[in-house]
Amino acid sequence: MKTSSNLLSNNKELDDGSPNTYNSQNITNEQYKTIPIKTNYIKPEESYDIIIHRASKLLKNGDFLVVSETPIAISQGRLVDEMEYKPSIISILITELWSKYLWGYILGPILKIKKRTIKNLRKLPTEARYHKQFILENYGIKHALKPASEAGVDLSNVPGTQVCLLPTDPELVVQDISDKIRFNLNKNVTVMIIDTDVTYQLLGMKFTSIPIAIPGIKKDLGVIGYVLGRWGKIRGPTPLAVSKLQNVDESINIAKIAEECQKKNNINVETVYDMKKMFNGEITNVTIEMLESIEHTPAIIVRKL
């Protein structure tokens, strides 16, 4: 079960006219400078243009504007209530035997997955059965058998028992944002949407488990990609779409730099359990109002020096 790292520790309401003035941590190295773009919570069906507005005074020609997938998908209304799905025998077996016990106690340690992931798998709640059923019905068995972060479905930054799917037509979204910046701000930037689910490399092939990725990355491998990734090298987050044709390695590198900046600006909310601790209660009780009380970083400007 995946979360995106968009939540920040500062519980202030942003002033709409004053972008990025709250505890931002820019990162500069010899090759790149990064600038976090902060906003209020982007609600379902709400325009993502607020990201452009907040970035407008900071962008320069040649910049990369790297946007997280979840706020875009939420803006598109890509939310589903998993409690509407009735767990089947198969989803119960996948949750309780395959994920919780086989991956939590045998395969996880053998394949050396993160200790945090193993710990979370061992304490999977019964609600995970609904999640597996949803994945089964919408993405198939190869994604349902992946122990965590199935099909890029996001369980954080959404209210109640809803989950957020990957964005629809991310290629059109990056082009739309790029065009608006060019026409309204007269600035030429490259826009990228990324997902924190990783891209691996093995024997020269780049691949990811999730269903969407830029050309040059083999996508939609589900549990097969996850297992192969144990023997491969983690390259970085997965770019879903880029507004201009880029070298795949450069795109992944830019995505990785943006993710590093985001981690510097965010508290440690890498799993749904971290989010539970943050709100001091059950995840199913999280409301939009609670999400609005937190500062978010939906995008990062990456600038070559």
Output the CATH topology of the largest domain: 60s Ribosomal Protein L30, Chain: A
Number of domains as seen in the coordinates: 2
Give the % helix: 25-40%
Strand content: 15-25%
Radius of gyration: 19 Å
Which superfamily, in CATH terms, is the homologous superfamily of the largest domain? CofE-like
Instruction: Determine and state the CATH class of the largest domain.
Output: Alpha Beta
Structural class of the secondary elements? alpha+beta
Distance between the termini: 37 Å
Please summarize the sheet with the most strands.
7 strands, mixed
The number of helical elements comes to: 11
Mean of residue pLDDT? Answer: 87
Number of strands: 9
Bulk shape: globular
Question: Describe it for me?
Answer:
The chain is α+β, with helices and mostly antiparallel strands and 305 residues long. The chain has two domains: 27-77 and 167-279 and 291-304, CofE-like (60s Ribosomal Protein L30, Chain: A), CATH 3.30.1330.100; 81-164, no CATH class. It has helices at residues 49-55, 69-75, 89-110, 115-122, 128-139, 141-144, 170-185, 222-229, 248-265, 272-278, 288-292, and strands spanning 27-28, 32-39, 64-68, 79-81, 162-164, 190-202, 205-208, 233-242, 296-304. Strands 1, 2, 3, 6, 7, 8 and 9 form a seven-stranded mixed β-sheet that branches. It has a two-stranded antiparallel ribbon with strand order 4-5. α3 runs antiparallel to α4 (115-122) and α3 crosses α5 (128-139). The longest helix has 22 residues, at 89-110. It is globular, with a radius of gyration of 19 Å. Residues 1-23 have low confidence and may be disordered.
